[in-house]
Amino acid sequence: MFMSIISGDNGTFHGQGESWWKKYRAGELKHERPFLIELLFSENVQISNLTLIDSPNWNIHPVYCNNVIIQGITILAPVTSPNTDGINPDSCTNTRIEDCYIVSGDDCVAIKSGLDKAGIAFGMPTKHLIIRHLTCISPTSAVIGLGSEMSGGIQDVRAEDIVAINSESGVRIKTGIGRGGFVKDIYVRRMRMNTMRWVFWMTGKYNLHDSSGGYDPNALPVISNINYLDMVAENVTMAGSLDGISGDPFTGLCISNVTIGLARKAKKLQWNCTDVGGISSGVVPKTCQLLKDQGSDKRAACDFPQDILPIDDVKLKNCYFKA
Q1: Which domain holds residue 137?
Q2: What is the share, in percent, of the chain residues with pLDDT greater than 90?
Q3: CA atoms within 13 A on the CB side of 126
Q4: DSSP class of 25
Q5: Whether the bond into 148 is cis, omega within 30 of 0
Q6: Which of 109, 193, 220, 321 could form a disulfide with 164 if both were Cys (CB 3.0 to 4.6 A apart)?
Q7: Is the residue at 294 inside a domain?
Q8: What is the model's pLDDT at position 1?
Q9: How many domains does the structure of the chain reveal?
Q10: Helix (H) and strand (E) counts for the chain?
Q11: CB within 8 A of 47, min separation 6: which ones?
Q12: Where in the cell is it found (predicted)?
């Protein structure tokens, strides 16, 4: 039974974000801007059938939660608004994000698990996450971002049937020396994109660190078993920028059955790859040499998992209130 239900028949939360954004840009705030919905250490959570408008900061932020359903959510913010991430599961287990429409000034979905030494010490990953039937518009950020706060680990993410329109990158992994943690067993399929700067973007050179707790320069992240399957993109500036860490490469990348149509002013170099390794098959334009082409007969190399996660068996609850 669900213990925490935030639901409404298309009800609206308005965050009055404009005044917060102005003060933030002017450097007038003494404290952090609030999130619109934040839940900590909660179990059996449902957030459904709501419209969230103009959040001062992130919109939905479940932290250290277990068994979370976020479904039927519309999130609207100006695409120039600062840090208006859509949905940010943070050190959560068994989460399902489904049937959501997001327009934001930052990532539509950003998956997190703590920052630097504090995240490593707490050691609570985000794992067993489903993202399904998501539509995203975010011209300056990612449709699905993993990190950069990933020091507790991110594992077993399954995203499918995603639509991206006018967004900076389709799938982005962001980390750096000192993060520690891991991002592994990531599966994305059936993604349709139009007007993108990058389809795939990974960087191991993100150097923003925790100002209070510091970081350990010997804490290296592990990025492995990242799978992309059955994708189509149009009007793309650059297919992929995949930049790992020297001496700590990103491994086990697999990209299969992906067709990318280029913009009129596309980059001449479509793939930029350093310190990464993996395979590819049936990708247009052809990937870099570090992702070894297996040929069209190997398109099943990065198949999507067939087992069902426990959160997929949980049904949405209805909640009614009469004054």
Answers
A1: 4-210+234-245
A2: 88
A3: 31
A4: H
A5: yes
A6: 193
A7: no
A8: 44
A9: 1
A10: 2, 16
A11: 6, 7, 37, 60, 68, 69, 70, 71, 73
A12: Secreted, Cell wall
